[in-house]
Amino acid sequence: MRLKGHGMLPRIVVIAALYLFALFGLPALLSLYYIDSLTQAAIFSIVAVGLGVLVGRVGLYSLGQYAVLAIGAWVAARLLFATTLPYPVVLLAAGVVTMVIGMIFGLPALRVRGLYLALITLMMAGALTVVITTTNFPNGGSGFWGYNGSTVHPAAIRRPAIAAGDPAYYRYSLVVAAIMFILVFVHVRTKPGRAWVAIRQSESAALAAGINTTLYKLWAWALASFVTGVAGGVLAGSSHYLYSIDFPVQDSITLLAVVLMGGAYSLWGAVVAGLLLQLLPALFQVWGVSNDWITILFGIGVLNVLITAPRGLADQVPRDLGRLVRKLRAVGQRAPAPEATAR
Amino acid sequence: MGFRKRAFRFAVAPAVLAVAFGMLATLSTGPSYASLRPSTAASAKSSTSSCGTNPGVKAKGTPINLGAIVTDQPGTSFTDISNMAAAYFTCVDDNGGIDGHPIHYFIKTEQSVPSQITADAHYLVDTDHVIDMVGNTSIIECSVDYKYWESLGFRVIASGIAPQCYSTPNYADVNMGPRYSSDGAAQYAISKGIKDIVFDQSNVPGTQYNVGGIVAITKHDGVKLTQLTEDVPISDPDEVALKEVDDAGPNGAVILNFTPPEALLILQAAQKLGLEDRVKMWGCSTPCNTDFLSESLGSKWNDKLFVNAELAPPDSTHTKTMDLYKAIYHQYGKAVSGGIGSFSEMGFTEAEIMVHALEKVKGAYTVKSVNAAVESVHNFVTGMNCQRWTYGDYSLHIANNEDYTVTPENGKMVLAQGCTLISPLDPQIAAYRKAAGTAPLAPGE
Amino acid sequence: MPSWVEFQPFIVTGLALGGVYALSGVGMIVLFRATGVLNVAFGAVGAMGALLAWQVIYQYRWSDWLGYLICIAFAAVLTLVYGLVMGPPLAGRDPLVKAVATLGLALILLGVMDLLWTSNGGEARAISLPTDSITFSVGQILINWTQVLGLALGVAITVVVGAFLRFTKLGTAMRATASDREITATLGVPVRRVEASAWLGCGVLSGLAGLLLADLVALDATTLTFLVISSLAAALIARLRSITVTLLAAILVGLVESVLVPIQSVSNYADMTPFVLATVGLVIITLRRREISTSRSS
What we know:
The complex is a heterotrimer.
Chain A: H1 8-29, H2 32-58, H3 65-82, H4 87-106, H5 114-135, H6 166-189, H7 191-201, H8 203-208, H9 213-239, H10 249-262, H11 267-287, H12 292-308, H13 313-333
Helix pairs in contact in A: 1-6, 2-6, 2-9, 2-10, 2-11, 3-4, 3-5, 3-9, 4-9, 6-7, 6-9, 7-9, 10-11, 10-12
Chain B: H1 12-22, E1 64-73, E2 76-77, H2 79-94, E3 103-110, H3 114-126, E4 132-137, H4 141-152, E5 156-159, H5 164-167, E6 171-173, H6 177-191, E7 196-202, H7 207-210, H8 212-221, E8 224-230, H9 237-248, E9 253-257, H10 260-272, E10 281-284, H11 291-296, E11 305-309, H12 320-332, H13 342-358, H14 367-375, E12 402-409, E13 412-421, H15 427-436
Parallel strand pairs in B: 1-3, 1-4, 4-5, 5-6, 7-8, 7-9, 9-10, 10-11
Antiparallel strand pairs in B: 1-2, 11-12, 12-13
Helix pairs in contact in B: 1-6, 2-12, 2-13, 3-4, 6-8, 9-10, 13-14
Chain C: H1 4-35, H2 42-59, H3 64-90, H4 95-116, E1 135-138, E2 141-144, H5 145-167, H6 169-179, H7 181-186, H8 191-216, H9 221-237, H10 243-260, H11 273-288
C-alpha cells in the first residue's frame, strides 16, 4: 500500500489475477469442504478488516466486535424471514443498522483510549451477549424477536437465488468481501485515512492541525461497524441457522488476538486473519490434529507477533522469506546481498 | 458462528452443551474413572470373537465406508461415542468383517458452528465417500444436516440431542434425548404424588421444545409447572439452587435438564446450602446418570435424587451383549477415555445396529442397499435398550421411548424403577406410536 | 415480587459471589499496579493449578494439603516464569499490548487443559474444600466456611496488599516501577527484582483464587479462565487503581446480580449486572474526567 504511482499498476494486476483465480479457479479445483471453509474465511476477513480500521488505522482497540457481528447477523436474519427484499438490500440494511448501534459502542472512544477503551467495549459486548442469549436468533417465529423455541422444524435462513449452492455462495461472499475491502481501501487512501493516521500518532497534534477528531473517530467506528454488519448478513445466509452460543464474549478477545497476529496495519493482514480463523482449523481437521492445538498455536502466535513482529504475519512472513532468499542468493554468489529490494 | 472455531469454543462450549445433553443417555454405573482404564480394569469374561462371523480372520475385501460427526469442544465432548463405535468396527474387521469386507469409519469433530458442520458433511461424502452415517452425536448437527442426509437417502443411526434428531425421517436414535428423558423424570415425580414441579434447563435454542412434553403431562395431571432457564456456563450456582427450591416449595420437585458438569454444580450448591430436604424430590434427565456425579454427591441424595436412564446399567447387567461390550472396550477401546458408561454404551449400540443391518445386505454395498437395510431394521434386540429397536420408514423416530429410573447410592447409580413407557400425553410420543406402534419389550438374554 | 424473607438467602449468596469477583479483581489489580500488566491469564493459571490439585487429590489420592500446595506453587512459578520471560521485551509497550500478551498465555493454557483434562464421557470434576462441611445458620440460611473464606480472603488480600504497597520498601518500589520504569531504574531500584516479586505475588493469588473458585463456582477450565471478564467489571469501576474500591464494587456487583435472580421478570438478565454496572460506572467517571488513558506515551 505504500507504493505510489508507477508501482501501483503491477500490484493491481497481481491482486486482480489472484482474486479472479480465487473467484473462478478455486471452486473448480477444490472440494466443497474447502469451498465452505474459504467462504467463512472470506466472511471473517471482512470482520478482520473492520477491526483493522480501528486498531491499525486509528489506534482504537475494540474487544466487542463479535457482539457487533452478532447484531449484523441478527438484523439480516430478521429481515430475511420477515421480508422478500433482495439480498443486497438486506445486507445493506444489516450494515446500516449495525453501523448505528456500533457507533454507540464507539461513543466512549471519544473520551477514552487504550486499555480502558478495550475493556469498556468488552463490557458492552458482555451485556449485549446476555441479551442475545436470552432472546435468541430469529428462526422464523413471529413477533419482534422472530424466535419460536417450541418449533420442531426451525426455518433455514434463505440465500440469494443466484447463490443457493455452496460454490455460488462462496463467490457471492468473495464479491461482497471485495466490495468491503475496496470501501475500506478508499477510506484509507483519502482524507479520512490521513486524519486517522494523524489521530493515531498524536491526538493533540491532530487537533492542533485542525482535524475534527470527534468526527473522524466516530467515522472509523461507523465504517468498522458497517462492514462487520454486512459480514454478519453474509454469515447468516452461509450457515442457514444462527445460535447465540456461537457468539460468546471471549471470541471477541481471540478475534483481536488473531487480527494482531495477521497484521492489523494492512489489508493483507485481514486476509491472513480470515484464513487463520477458518481455513487453518479445517486443515487441522483433515490432518487429524486436535483443535486444542489451534488454541495453543494462537496463544504462541500472539506472543510471537507482539514481541517480534508488531506488524503481523502478513508483514513478517514475506520479510523473513525475502531475507532467506537474499541469504541463499548471497551464499550462492559468495557475495554480499544487495540492500533490501523495494517492496 | 464463531470463527470456525475449532479453537474457540471456549465458553461456548459449556453453553451449548447444555442442550446437548439432555440427550445423552446414561446409565452408567461403572467403577471410578481411574480404575476404568483398559490397562487396569478387570479382564472381561467373554472374548471379542463373537463380534464377527469369521473369528480370527482379518477382512480384506473392498471397504464399506461409514462416517460420523461428533461434537468435541472444550467442556463438551462426545467422542467417546464414535470412538466406541470405531472399536466395535475394528473388532468386526478382525473377525471376518462384513462378509469379508472391512468397515472404514471416518470421524469428523465439530465445535457447534453450522458452517463447519456443513463442511464436515461434504468432506465425508465427497472425499471419504461414506455411504451412511452412524454414531453422530452433536448439539446441532441434526438441525444443520437433516435435509442433506435426506437428499442423499442416508438413514442415520445417532445419539440425538436437537429436535430434528427425533422429528425427521432420516435420523433414528438409541437414546431418548432431552425432551423425552425429561418427560420420564417428570412422570416419575408425578407417580410419587408430586403436585408442584420446577423444571430448570440451560438457556439454549430448543428450550421450549424440550419442555413441551412436560407441559402436556402436567396439564393433564393437574400438576403445577414452573419453567426456569439458566444462562450457561453457570457462574452463580447458589442462586440457581435457591431459586429452584423457593419456587418448588416443601412438597414439590425440582427437575434439572443440564449437562453433567452444570447439573453437578447445581446439586453441589444445593448440598452446601443444605437445600436437599427443602423440596420433596429432585429429578434429572439422563445426563445426571454418571458415576462422576454420584461420587461427588453425598449420601443425602440417596432416594432423594431420581435420574431418568436409558441404557442397561453395565455393573448389574450380566448378559452376552454386556460382556461383548466390555470385552470390545478392553481390547479395542483405548481411545474411549471416559471408560465404561452410557456414552460408550451408546456408541456400541449404534455400531451393533449398523453391523446387524450390513449383514443383511445382499450384493454390493451401495448407498441404496445399505440404507435400505438400515431402514428395514425391525424389532432388533440391542441388549442395551428396554425395548426392541426399529428404524422403519416414518416421518419421525423416537425408537427408544421406554426406560429406567436410577438413584445414587454410595457413589453408584442403582435402579429405582424398571422399564417404564414414556407417556403418550406428550404429543410427539403419541404421534410416533401412532405411526410405528409401541415396540415390544426386549427379552432377557 | 418476592418477600423480604425470600430475599435474605440471596443476599448471603450475593456476598459470597461478590467475594468471588473480588478475589480475581483484586489479584489482577495488584499486579497491574506494580507492573502495569493486566494479567488476563489470571483465571487460566488458577484453573490449571486447581485441575492439578484435583488430579493429585482425587486421582492419585495424595493428601489434600499437598494438592493445595501444588496448586499454589504451580500458579506462582508459572506466573513468575512468564513475568521473567515476557516482562522485559514488552516493558516499554502500551498496557493494552501487555494485556493482550497475557491473553496469549491464557490461550496456551486453555488448549493444554482441554488436552489433558478432557470432557469425554460426560466427565464432571469438582473440588470440595474441608471448609465446605463446616456450616452455621443465619435464620433459615445455611452458610459454609468456604463462602466466608471467599469473602474474608477478598478483604484480607485487599488490606494486606494495600498496606504492603503503602508501607513496605518493596511496595513503594513496586508503585514507583509501575508509574515509570525507566526513572525508577535510574534511581537505583532493582526493577527486575521488584517486578519478579510482583509476578510471584500475583501467581500465589491466582493459585489461591483458582482453588477457591473451583469450589465456589466450578472446576472447569473454560469457566474459570473467562470468569475474569466478569471480575474485571469491578476492577474497571475502580479504574484499575484502588483495591478498596474494587473490593466494594465486587461486592456490589455480586449483591445486585444475586438479588435480581428471584425476581422472575429480570431473572435471565441478572448475568448482565457486571457489564452494565461497569459500563454505567465508567460513563459516569468519564463524564467527570476529561480523559482517561492508561497509555503513558500519550
